[in-house]
Design a protein that fits this description.
hydrolase; SGNH_hydro; Ester_Hydrolysis_Enzymes; Rossmann fold; Acylhydrolase; five-stranded parallel β-sheet; about 230 residues; alpha/beta; phosphatidylcholine lysophospholipase activity; 9 helices; globular
């Protein structure tokens, strides 16, 4: 219960925080500038893997730090972000770090309308732009499905479930066509109403510890299959 309350406050804070700084730094480009500079100064690591995403990615290392400890995993998630914001910071937070691979989990905040209305096509195009940009820089991609969501506590009535399924279908088809790793979290976490299983989430959107525990072995299997 404590973790659930703390995470709920964290999500609300991040939504407020990102909204208030948006006018000054719309893409949140300053968020990881110092950490990126320190990481690049430390030298090149051929096994580095960058996690690019939103609050689901950001909260992962907070809720399950043991998963990241002692590994070459670099978390670059920012709560509340949509795909155009991630695309804007993709060079500095992914490409410039010269990772072996990027774990790309994006799109749910676009569906939620965090920055206004969007379409599946727009979301898909932004994600694929990041995939292609990574490929042009010889960075392997683990393209993640969007997690299931039945409703958003901060924007109810959007009816995201079928939109998530549609977007995931497009991402999977692209990955299969272009020989990219597609990581299917959705199937392992969905309930009968096409939402997130209650026991795996905090608010129907964000995973709890049990949710991340389901995601981690799936990701580790994908990482193990990366080209050497």
């Amino acid at each position: 219960m404590i973790n659930r309350l703390k995470w709920g406050f964290f999500v609300l804070f991040m939504l407020f925080f990102t909204q208030t700084i948006m006018a000054q730094d719309w893409g949140n480009l300053k968020r990881y500038q110092k950490k990126n500079a320190a990481l690049m100064a430390s030298g090149f690591d051929e096994n580095r893997i960058v996690f690019m995403g939103n609050s689901i990615t950001q909260g992962w290392s907070d809720m399950r730090p043991a998963f990241f400890d002692g590994k070459c995993y670099v978390n670059r998630g920012i709560g509340g972000q949509t795909t155009p914001e991630m695309l804007l910071r993709f060079r500095q937070d992914v490409i410039n770090l010269k990772p072996k691979a990027v774990v790309l989990l994006a799109g749910i905040n676009d569906i939620a309308g965090n920055r206004g209305p969007s379409t599946t096509e727009i979301i898909y195009n932004n994600i694929i732009s990041m995939v292609e940009w990574a490929g042009a820089n010889e960075i392997q991609v683990i393209l993640c499905s969007v997690l299931p969501v039945f409703d958003f506590p901060w924007n109810p009535g959007v009816k995201p479930a079928l939109k998530v399924i549609e977007l995931n279908g497009l991402l999977k088809a692209y990955a299969n066509k272009h020989g990219i790793l597609y990581l299917d979290y959705f199937t392992a976490m969905v309930d009968d109403s096409n939402g997130l299983k209650k026991e795996l989430g905090i608010d129907g959107v964000h995973p709890n510890e049990a949710g991340y525990a389901v995601m981690e072995p799936l990701l580790e299997k994908a990482i193990a299959s990366l080209k050497k």
